[in-house]
Amino acid sequence: MGAELSRRSFGVVAGLLGLAACGSNTGRGGGAAGTLRHWYHAYGEDGVQDAVRGYAAAYPGARVEVQWNPGDYDSKVLTALQTSGVPDVFEAQVKVDWVRQKQVVPLDDLLGDTKGDFVRTLLESQTVDGKLYGIPQAIDTQVLYYRKSLLDKAGVTPPRTVDELIDSAKRLNTGSVRGLFAGNDGGVGVLTAPLLWSAGLDFLSQDGKAPGFDDPRAATVFGKLRDLNQALLLGSPTDWSDPGAFVDGRVAMQWTGLWNLPKITAALGDDIGVLPFPRLDAAGAESVPVGAYSAMVNARGADVEAAKAYVKWLWVEKAEYQTEFATAFGAHLPARESLAASAQPLRAGPGKDIVGFVTRGGRVASPARWSARANTALSDAVARIARQGADPTAELRAALDVAKDEIARLDR
Q1: 195 and 319 together in one domain
Q2: What GO CC annotations are associated with the protein (predicted)?
């Protein structure tokens, strides 16, 4: 789960509303010895902050302080792990560097009989060297939303290949309406992974020992993003994670998150369809990115075992809280398969379609062994290809060199 969420009002477990009023220190005082500090990034949805404070207040085993963190949450966590024992518990996506530097602790012993109930790919994404370092909280994905009426008017069939997507976006450029919005960076941030998957490639090889895009098809598919940029909306007041460009009628199609489904259906009713990102060709595949913030425990914390007990209570034992967190504030999938039936927005229509996309073509968007430096090198290369017309082969060669260095470093 990223910082780009949009959940609806708090309401599935109504009794928690009374607990939420206690505030960030749960009404039992703050800063005292024995207090657990739990960090979240600043979700943008109404009700989430009250809900997680309510969960903390209900915990019988310790006083828990919830801290909301606006701004650059990931950098703040990185700094905290290097310098202090606070937070005790935090949400993030595991990084190999954190494991190598012993900044987080294994959590395999928390799952017990529930392990098989968690979505396997999520557990794998939080696993390093065979040990689990994060308990997934909920599943987010991104899909291609389109206006049925606008496609019908233009005589456009919903695209199932990358070339069809490019052609559709160009044909849907009419007057003040652009064909597609995928972010103000021209889709570099959110389409790099789906483009790789569309060509049958990935960030890493299956064993994680080599880059997964050391293939001429990578240059081919990133060249397609340059073509697509000719039809994209750029300079939107809101970025890809917000549905504003789509619901306000500025674009016929938008790549954005499942979490926006309630807002989109409220605005446009049944005049919407959804698709996975299309395949490049018969050798590629349709896909959607799957991501989840997971609860982790700081190895420097004052009481690691107490922190683990709290994580087990909240994200393994309290199924009603897990269901609410995933489904009551926008549309998300629970991280546990047995709870998916409670996801009311996903039982029919576009929501049900998206569940199918995740089941058939969900791919991990942020592998633990894919480092920040390697990601920056690839993103910069794709940006130069898409926005500046740089040579794809040369740009990817430089990105491959960085990725190989990072993989070697992590294997030392």
Answers
A1: no
A2: ATP-binding cassette (ABC) transporter complex, substrate-binding subunit-containing
The reply to whether 192 and 275 lie within a common domain is yes
pLDDT band at 27 (very low <50, low <70, confident <90, very high): very low
CA distances from 111 to 93, 141, 275, 334 (A): 18, 24, 34, 16
Residue 169 lies in a domain: yes
Residue that has been written with the tokens 């900044």 in this structure: 103
What are residue 364's DSSP bridge partners? 290
DSSP states of 118-157: B-HHHHHHTEETTEE--EE-EEEEEEEEEEHHHHHHHTPP
One domain, residues 381 and 261: yes
pTM across the whole model: 0.82
Query: Are the beta carbons of 316 and 114 closer than 8 angstroms?
Result: yes
CATH number, domain of 200, equals 3.40.190.10
* pLDDT (tens digit per residue) in 271-329: 999 999 999 999 999 999 998 899 999 999 999 999 999 999 999 999 999 999 998 88
| Beta-ladder partners of 390 | none
